[in-house]
Amino acid sequence: MTNPNDRALSRADRQAMPLALDVAVEIAKQHGVCIRPVLLRRMDVHTGITEDVNVPCGTTMEAKCPSCAKRNRYLRMAQCREGWHLEAEPSTTPDEPTEEQRWLVEFRADMQAQRDAAEQAGHDTTDLNAVLIGLDEEINAVGMRGSLRGRTAPKRNRSTKRRQDAPDLPKKVRQNTTLGRTFTSSDGMVYRPSLFITLTLPSYGRIRAGQGVPVDPNTYDYPRAARDALHFSKLVDRFVQNLRRVAGYDVQYFSSVEPQKRLAPHLHMAVRGTMARAEVKAIAAATYHQVWWPSVDEVKFNGEQLPVWVKRADLPDGETYPDGQDGDYLDPATGEVLPTWHEALDRLDADEATEPLHVVRFGPQVDVQGVLGGTPDADQCIRYLSKYLTKSLGDTLDPDNPAQHQHAARMIEALHYEPCSAACPNWLRYGVQPKGAKAGMTPGRCRGKAHKPEHLGYAGRRVLVSRKWSNKTLSEHKRDRRTWVMEALGLADEPTDPHRYLWKPVPAGDGTIPSLALRLLRMVAERQRWRATLLALEAKATALPTPDPSSTREAA
Question: pTM for the full model?
Answer without folding.
Answer: 0.83
